[in-house]
Amino acid sequence: MEEKKKIEKEKKEAPIRDLTTCEATAQMLEKARRDGVETQFDRALNMKACPIGADSACCKHCAMGPCRLNANDPYGKVGVCGANIDTIQSRNFARMVAAGTACHNDHGMAMLNIFRDVVNGEIKDYAIKDVAKLESVATSIGIAIEGRTTKEIALDLYDALEKTYTQVEGEIPFAKRVPAKTLELWRKHNIVPRGAMREIMEMMSRTHMGVDQDYNNIMKQISRTALVDGWGGSMVATEIGDIMFGTPSPVTIEVNMGVLKEDQVNIIVHGHEPNLFESMLMSVKEPTLVKAAKEAGAKGINLVGMCCSGLEVLSRHGVPHAGNFSSTEPILVTGAVDAMAVDIQCIQQGLVKVAECYGTPLFTTNPRCKIEGATHLELHEHNPQECTDGIVIKAITRFKNRKFPVQIPKNVNFGVHGFSHEYINYMLGGSFRGSYTPLNDNIINGRIRGVAGVVGCTNPRVKQDWVHVELVKELIKNDILVVQTGCSQIALAKAGLTTPEAAHLAGPGLKEVCETVGMPPVLGLGACVDNSRVLIACAEMVKTGGLGDSIADLPVAGCAPEYMSEKAIAIGQYFVASGVYTVFGVTFPITKGTKFEKLLFEGLETQGFGKWGFAVDPHDIARLMIAHIDKKRKALGLDKGRERVLMDMQDRRAIDAA
Predict the structure, then answer these.
(1) Helix (H) or strand (E) holding 453
(2) How far does the chain reach from its first CA to its final CA, in angstroms?
(3) Exposed, middle or buried: residue 9 (CB in 10 Å: 0-12, 13-18, 19+)?
(4) Would the CATH topology of 257-400 be identical to that of 423-640+650-657?
């Protein structure tokens, strides 16, 4: 008992306002401390990150180790088997990419399997909602659509996209979307993905003890594996999601914890696969369940999202969003959550204890993600409402028997989200002249300096949301259009940067474009899996012309300023392999001063790819990204002064006539 008291006394605490810029989260962290409830912020303070592991200077892939090298003297010794620092860290990096790629491809394959059963009539609760998107995707990979039924096209699309996972030779289907010069570079280096299962299996095999021991050779398979994520599994998940559940278009959304309602049954869905949320949308409207909620004393059932599945339905259906990754525990502290349902990815095991503290039922719904202490109520796509109706019933019971005081932060922010590739195309050119030409032209004339993707997670080892917000403010101030996916999008929405009115914070050129089009300077594209929309946009910019022949020529840059997962490393690497300069924050799993570090941060670019960058401070990150964009502008000859003309509809008609 005395030892326990001593440990409790030694636990660190930091001022709440040093942990987050989110006012609602801060209020709940203060309440959690008063209630004696631990969150990820507390664990991060009291769990010192291993410095050797952070520098990727250790290897635990066989029983002769674990072997620890000295990051301050990286070539001073080798592992028991003789592996040097470059072999060790390239293997570690490779396995992070393999795990992240496996996550996204597992998600994509699950979506594709649902699509197959929908097309064959075996699943009745979902349907093909966007036939135009189905035909567009089919056409993009060479499937004929003229004179054919929707079912015929859909079955061919399924057969083609299945190769993304199962093919052992050849090139993945969406390689057809890659700009010719970029694809030529991949073929030259033999990194065009064949199939996800093949690439991930080979990556894990080659990083086993005693197999591939040349960091340059490992690097090729790292890129090949990552590319089957971005141009494979992630792209399949996004496109199939759009086909079945609808392609997003802009909608004004309420975000932050104030979307909870004390007088309603509050249900949160958190995870990544949209099918759970789509079924929940039906369950909360079921008349008998709505009646049951009212009989329990509630005014209704309030369904809200968190993390990436929340972003899926935010974009497609305008469902309110309660917060990003770092707020998933604090929101339970409100006492207002009557049920939380989760599926896969980014689900913290710590949710169980916090949910228990406030009497909130926590449900896992996917066989690939069970948590000790949570109630497992599995969702079967052939009868999904059996699961989601059950969750609603439990939530109503909890509402009726609430035992804990409810404290809901009043913070509610608004943002405009849902900027799919299709809508951006329409927004810039209209129904009949949809085109990226206005975007390219305004980059060429200097009104827009370039485009930046700011994406990814939040991480409790840095102040929640702060780096995202400060970085984006600096970028738009310098006339750089920002696109976003994942938890970053909610950070920016809470800061008011995803509304057209935020254009007043942009530089004069970007501001003029935003005001002319009526768009925000920050475009929310969806969940983290929807980074594939950014790849498609880059390919379209190349196709439109005037900005080079490959993605590597474009004045664009990417960043994950608060990343925390292996998925993020896979995403970063597929952008780098596609030709994009990509900067990460918080920390980077590499030992400085090594040959592998030089390959990532310099060598890949000399081979024609993108490259990695790293900085912690948002202003340092912005400087790196802006400098790279300016370098690309100079290479394209865009650094010279040009007349800046914003095209109107008459100009576009003239182009079409020509």
Answers:
(1) strand 450-455
(2) 84
(3) exposed
(4) yes
pLDDT of amino acid 644: 46
Give the burial class of 332: count Cβ atoms within 10 A of its Cβ; 0-12 exposed, 13-18 middle, 19 or more buried.
Answer: buried
Question: For residue 460, is the peptide bond before it cis, meaning its omega torsion is within 30 degrees of 0?
Answer: no
Query: What residues does each domain of the chain span?
Result: 85-245, 257-400, 423-640+650-657
pLDDT tens figures, 586-603:
999 999 999 999 999 999
DSSP 163-180: HHHH-SSS--GGGGGS-H
Instruction: Name the residue among 619, 581, 628 with its Cα closest to residue 449.
Output: 628
Which pTM value belongs to this model? 0.94
Instruction: List CB contacts of 148: < 8 A, sequence separation 6 or more.
Output: none
What number does CATH give the domain 423-640+650-657? 3.40.50.2030
Give me the half-sphere count of Cα atoms (radius 13 Å) on the Cβ side of residue 301: 29
Give the mean model confidence (pLDDT) for residues 469-489.
97
- Which CATH number is 85-245's, of 2.40.10.220, 2.60.40.1180, 3.60.120.10, 1.20.1270.30? 1.20.1270.30
How does DSSP classify residue 243? H
Half-sphere exposure for 513 (CA within 13 Å, toward CB): 28
Architecture of domain 257-400 in CATH?
Answer: 3-Layer(aba) Sandwich (3.40)
DSSP readout, 544-599?
Answer: H-SS-SSGGGSSEEEEETT--SHHHHHHHHHHHHHT-EEEE-S--SS-TTSHHHHI
**Both structure tokens of 263:** 């007088």
Length of the chain: 658
Q: What are phi and psi of 498, to 5 degrees?
A: -110, 25
Instruction: Answer for the pair 179, 542: CB distance below 8 angstroms, yes or no.
Output: yes
CA 205: distance to chain centroid?
27
DSSP annotation of 464: B
CB within 8 Å of 126: residues ≥ 6 apart: 114, 118, 244, 245, 275, 278, 381
Confidence at 89, pLDDT banded by 50, 70, 90? very high
